[in-house]
Amino acid sequence: MAERQDLTCDVAVIGAGTAGISAERAARKAGARTLLIDPWFRGTLCANTGCMPSKLLIAAAHAAHAVRHAPVFGVNPGSLAIDGQAVMARVREERDRFVAFTKETFDDLPEGTAVTGRARFEGPGQLVLEDGRRIASRAIVIATGSEAMIPPPFRDLGPRVLTTETLFEIPDLPERLAVIGGGPIGLEMAQAMGRLGVRVTLFDNSTTLAKARCAAVHDALKEAVSRDLTLRLGCETSAEAVDGGIRIDWTGDDPGRAVFSHVLVATGRPPNLKGLDLDRSGLALDDHGTPVFDRQTMQCGDSAVFIAGDADADVPLLHEASTEGAIAGRNAAAFPDVAPSERNTAFTLTFTDPPVASVGASPEDGTICGRSDYGNQGRARTEARAEGVMSVYADADGRLTGADLCCPGAEHLSHLLAWAIESGATAPQILSMPFYHPTLEEGMKAALREICGKTSQPVPESRDFGNLPGG
């Protein structure tokens, strides 16, 4: 048998997910010879078990909800029938299409760039593959992503306990579903399943859903999702496998016990760092065993090792992973000439209905707050979805610094607010822009005017159409 040859490169990237793909591309663009190392090259987390399959399930839930809601417009579609097997089949079929698209990016890599296998540290800056080959590289990027976590009460209870790794593989919708965790993923899937006719109960030991920062926004979110599922917040749970399902006991203000056909555990995704032998890397590690790094450079200490994406346990979002990968790849190629990069405005979005979003600074940052109530907003009323609230934050000069919202169109409105914050816009400047009537965008004017009033900034008179119906 021929002896396996050791490998050399300028930048070795461990992990071929969103962050790893971005890092490899950035490093290669900067002139570096790269290696992209992954055990499977199965595509990104987003395409396989994250963003895309979850949104496919949510799209089915929107369709079911629209049918139920149609009579308010005088449209009576008749009885609703949900084919759970067809729902899940379409989720997998379309998911596989998205996965295929991401895999095509690997075909475009220069020959010899993709290395199938697992890499681990043999010493500071030294990598070895599981087949014994060593990799000599000037710099390393860790982009190994994250993995689903099942806490002890639900561990070893069999296939009825699901994570996002297995949820989309079930052949039919569950009969009765318990969701453990009220974060963005748990809440999205709980509401979607509820709208698809599944009896859903969501449990969380916290009393806050989707990490909402604003009390008014949280109240709006809680009221909306409570129509589609049962909430058990501020409680502890225990579980046991029984005939036909999983029995859950819970504490709290209304303690109880129930048997569920399935349990979806959505309690977080810790970094996937097992097997890297980071104890041999020479890197400083935090209390959780994650390398300490600079989020402006993605550099671990002053070493030639960089980290990006979910592996760094910072902001587990696709757009952040892509940004971090690009920063890490550029700096790995340029090492030791590492340059900081300014990060974009923080932006999170949960695809409930209505969506909930947080942008930039929080309300605790000493900022001025303006609020818009969508409970009677004109365009929202025409669509029979008038509910929710938007809170916008600004500094003493009226410059926008952040926002929290749970209202119709929030996934689009939050983008506009993020762009406004990035550009340094003030409330008067935005109010001077054209607002078409009637639109959901008009609803933000009340919050902007309130900011103007609190900062003594004048409201632009020529564009102030606030007295029009539905504005």
TrEMBL record:
It comes from the Bacteria. Residues 348-447 form the Pyridine nucleotide-disulphide oxidoreductase dimerisation domain. Residues 10-325 form the FAD/NAD(P)-binding domain. This is Dihydrolipoyl dehydrogenase. GO terms for molecular function: dihydrolipoyl dehydrogenase (NADH) activity. Keywords: FAD, Flavoprotein, Oxidoreductase. InterPro entries: FAD/NAD-bd_sf (IPR036188), FAD/NAD-binding_dom (IPR023753), FAD/NAD-linked_Rdtase_dimer_sf (IPR016156), Mn/Fe_SOD_N_sf (IPR036324), Pyr_nuc-diS_OxRdtase (IPR001100), Pyr_nucl-diS_OxRdtase_dimer (IPR004099).
